[in-house]
């Protein structure tokens, strides 16, 4: 585009921050993703640590609610599996606090007639 706007496809991949993704699931409640750092050629990048994230779904009156979280401090898959429940709980509590704050802000709006 010559008009100075950015196209949706004008993306640049950070080749110094690449990860290989692996997923592990118990087929019932949880999925753990391990993001292993790699170099541009696909070989392991031992200068960086793996990142673990967790995913699950909570049932609500309106249907399933996906919950995704970072599993802080996990070094191995075993460690991530052990820390997942606490990480999910922390994320859920943050979601509840955010929803309550949004509700509080909405309730405190001043209604002006005619608007």
Detail the topology: elements first, then pairings:
Layout: E1 18-25, E2 31-38, E3 51-60, E4 63-70, H1 77-107
Antiparallel strand pairs: 1-2, 2-3, 3-4
Structure description:
With 115 residues, this protein is an alpha+beta fold. The chain has one domain. It is built from 1 helix and 4 strands; from the N terminus they run ββββα. It has one helix at residues 77-107, and strands spanning 18-25, 31-38, 51-60, 63-70. A 4-stranded antiparallel sheet has the order 1-2-3-4. The model has no long low-confidence stretch (mean pLDDT 91).
Which labels suit this protein?
alpha+beta, flat, 4-stranded antiparallel sheet, 115 residues, 4 strands
Concise account of the structure shown:
The chain is α+β, with helices and mostly antiparallel strands. The chain has one helix at residues 77-107, and strands at 18-25, 31-38, 51-60, 63-70.
**Cα-based radius of gyration, to the nearest Å:** 20 Å
Overall morphology: flat
Strand composition percent: 25-35%
Structural class: alpha+beta
Count the DSSP helices.
1
Largest sheet: 4 strands, antiparallel
β-strand number: 4
Strand arrangement across the biggest beta sheet: 1-2-3-4
**Poorly predicted ranges:** none
Number of folding domains?
1
Query: Whole-Å distance between the termini?
Result: 40 Å
Secondary-structure element pattern, one letter each: EEEEH
Helix content: 25-40%
What would the average pLDDT be, to the nearest integer? 91
